[in-house]
Amino acid sequence: MAKYSVEFKLKIVQEYLKGDIGYHALAHKYGIPDKKRIQFWVAKYRVMGEKGLQRSRKNETYSFQFKLHAVELYLSTEMSYQELALQLKLKSDGILVNWVRRYRAVGIEGLKPQRKGRRPKVPDKTSITPECNINQDERLKQLEEENLKLRIEVAYLKELRRLRLEQEAQKRKQGSPTVSEDHSN
Q1: DSSP sequence for 55-81
Q2: Which segments of 109-135 does DSSP mark as H helices, in order?
Q3: In terms of Cα–Cα distance, which of 91, 103, 86 is closest to 62?
Q4: Taking a C-beta distance cutoff of 8 angstroms, is the pair 70, 78 a contact?
Q5: Which residues form a coiled coil (predicted)?
Q6: Which of 9, 68, 94, 159 is at a distance of 20 to 30 A from 153, taking alpha carbons?
């Protein structure tokens, strides 16, 4: 059972949207440990309506391309997990956290659909065959995936460099007025 019912969440969201009370006061009033949870409910309600507050009973499946796009967006923008989950209309930001974690640990392979169930006792024939028998189409696909991964990494590093340069420029700007004031006296 969910910790908070849909009715409870909806009541809190509507009370907040009336404008009489803030996140912190609502959290205190209803004994919710963190105001961020209420902020997330309100944001989900604004984006998805009442459906955004409901707990899904079915396991949503997402395509490999969608997962890759989501991870790419997260790594190349400055959006938080929560903001991006809302933009992509994911039920929770935890899904996105897992995708990014798997991508960082395993690479693109971590985003591909996993086999369900117990592993067979007899090894697959594909694992027995040597790697030199991989046909050209599979090799091309592997290289394209590696290329995409490297492009994402380059975009991430460029953005990181740009942000560092901006921070350094701001530090220089903040430091320069005080220096000029000291010299004018």
Answers
A1: PPSSPP---HHHHHHHHHHHHHS---H
A2: 125-128
A3: 91
A4: no
A5: 133-160
A6: 94
Could you give the CA distance from residue 45 to residue 40 in angstroms, rounded to a whole number? 8
**Beta-carbon-side half-sphere exposure of residue 69 (alpha carbons within 13 Å):** 8
3-state helix, strand, coil in the chain (%, to 5): 70, 0, 30
How far is it, in rounded angstroms, from Cα 79 to Cα 3? 27
Domain boundaries, the chain: 6-53, 58-114+135-171
Contact 43, 82 (CB under 8 A): yes
Q: CA-to-CA distance for 121 and 43, rounded, in angstroms?
A: 47
User: Which of 53 and 83 is assigned the larger pLDDT?
Assistant: 83
* DSSP type of residue 120: P
Note the pLDDT tens digit of each residue in 107-163: 888 888 877 778 777 765 555 555 555 688 888 889 999 999 999 998 888 888 888
pLDDT value for 1? 44
- C-alpha 15/C-alpha 35 separation (Å) is 14
**DSSP-assigned letter for residue 31:** T
**Residue of 76, 132, 65, 71 lying closest to 99 (CA atoms):** 71
Nearest to 64, CA basis, from 116, 115, 111: 111
Contact 30, 38 (CB under 8 A): no
Q: Extract the tokens encoding 10.
A: 């909806």
pTM comes to 0.50
